[in-house]
Each structure stands twice: as structure tokens, then as C-alpha cells.
Amino acid sequence: MRRFLISLSTGLGLLAAPVSAEAASDGADVVACKGCEALLDLAEASPGRKDDRARDVYRHPVETLLFMGVRPDMKVGEYAPGGGWYSRLLAPYLAKQGHLTGLFFNPDAGPFDPAKINAEAAAFAGKVEGWSGVPARSVSGMTLKDVPEAELGTFDRILLIRMLHNMRRWNIADSEIKAMRALLKPDGMIGIVQHRARADAPYAYTDGSKGYLRQVDVVHLMELNGFELVASSEINANPKDLANWPEGVWTLPPTHALKDKDRAKYDAIGESDRMTLLFRKRD
């Protein structure tokens, strides 16, 4: 079952309906985006994603973007886009009416090579065009350092996909989230997908070094940085993941930190158990 969130404007000719209680947190005033699913399915099937689809069974990208209310007319920021797994889906989806911006680390904030980060941001639009065929004018890239004033308060959504653990262990989570908050419109939202630790996991296992974070800690971190949780989903849950591997989340596919040791066992588990959360910027 696919879960939906947020209505599209009537000008796009798409209809709205209530979201299921299964998808929304208590009191979340959210509605479904009918019509977005078909457009996302087309984007998901684009030729540029032919090598990405093997991971769809674990990452549920269409369901995740629908849950986060990502509409084709939105300005969307993708934080730390990396190799472009989500970019190759977002770019064709947003190409006609919206805009995709790759948001790269503040090069001065963490253990980075500033020249490399700046170069990646500058090259992002061209890379996406090469991957997806979407014209570079529909895409942009920038770092979270010295954000242009014209960009502040202009983003509808920012996606933070499987990256918050790195932000924690590099001690840049607060500063990067603060920068992202400034980019969002007053009613803008951040959607988070993150490897999920067990609720009773010790701090040494949930400080980012193992890739897993406790869901309660993620919610608390976002609340401290000016957001409120409006919905959560089990779209990306995996009850087979015990989330207690000595080598952390990288024990599981696709990384396989232990190489061929017990590979069949970890392949049978699949990718990590993940929380999927949506936060609204609050006044």
C-alpha cells in the first residue's frame, strides 16, 4: 500500500483526499496527493534509473516522496546528493514545474576538502543532466556556506536521506540543520530517512559512528532546531535488521563491510531498518 501526503494545488488538476491514520502522526493535518503517484511512477521508470531499481525494494522511493508530500511544482533541496540515487528520480519529476537543488555540506564545517565540495556543488546540475537528460536549467547546486539571500525562505521541501548519522559524528548536525531551516518557506518541511537503532541501544552505538540513531533522539534534535514532527511512517522499516552489528549499518547490503563472510545471511536481511519522518518548520 502506498501512503500519500499533502495536497496539490487545484491549478494542476489533481485531487486531494485524507491521508490514512497509519501514515500520519496524531493530529497531523495532512491530505493525500492523488495524481502525483502516476507522475512519480513515470520518473521512477526513466532510463537513467536502470541501475538504481535494484534498491527500490528496500528504499521505496516513490512511496517515500509521496509520504513527504513532494509535488512536481515544488522547489526541493536534496542534502548531500552523493552519487545521485535520489537525484535521478527527483530531476525528471520536478523538471517541468519545479526545481531540484543539490545542497552540499558547508565546506568549512566538517572534515572536508573545501575545494572538492565547492567543485561538486558547481558540477551538480551538469551531472544530473548527464544522468537523466533533464536540462541543467531545472537543477542547481550550492553549499550551505554563505547561502545567497535570494534563496532564503524559498524551498518547499528539503530531503535528508540516510545522512544524519554522518552529521552527528562530524558534529555538524546543528549548524547544517539551522542553514536548511533558513532556506525553507514558513510552512516548509524536512523529510528524513535514517537508519534506526533500537530504542534501548546505548549511546556509544547511537552517536553516529555505527550509522544508527534512535528515533526519539532524531525527533528531539529536530525540535531543538525549530521543527515539529507532523508525520511518521514505517514505509522503510525492516524488522529483520537487529541493528546491533559490531561493524554498524555497513555490515548489511549494499556495503557488505564483512565482504563475503556470512554474505548470504546479510543479503537475506536486506538493507537497514529505517525511520521515515516529516518535520515542519515552526514559528
From TrEMBL:
Can you name the source organism?
Answer: Novosphingobium organovorum
Which Gene Ontology molecular function entries are recorded, alphabetically?
methyltransferase activity
Q: Does the keyword Transferase apply?
A: yes
Keyword flag RNA-binding: no
What name goes with this protein?
A: Methyltransferase
Keyword set, alphabetical order? Methyltransferase, Signal, Transferase
Question: SUPFAM superfamilies, alphabetically?
Answer: S-adenosyl-L-methionine-dependent methyltransferases
- The signal sequence is 1-23
Q: Which InterPro entries match?
A: S-AdoMet-dep_MeTrfase_Alr7345 (IPR016980), SAM-dependent_MTases_sf (IPR029063)
One Gene Ontology BP term is: methylation
